[in-house]
Input
Amino acid sequence: MFKISSYKTFQDGQIIFEDGSEGDCIYVVKGGEVEISKNVGVRKIVVEILKEGDIFGEMAYIDKTPRSATATAKGTAVVGTIDRNSFDAEFNKISADFQKILKTVAFRLRKTTKRSVKEQKTKDD
Output
């Protein structure tokens, strides 16, 4: 498993990161729950509720673009930050072709998310 460089406890409703922010690390839920959501107009759409062992924040880290959603603690949540050097060392062991595949998957997921949000916004208007 990945090395955790630090742990932080977030209280209910506390934002871990916001949509559009820099994606400079990856997180793992060590306790509690984390809500991943996206605002569409004035409406919040919950994309997923993450539980212990779930990893999040990986897309922005892998494709080096801003975060595509907001992560918020549900109840008290303990979150570990995956050590950047450890992750980079493992990621760099992967062939350049496979790295490109992972980056393509992240790009397509991001594109699909944007399309879904746009369609939802159109429905709401």
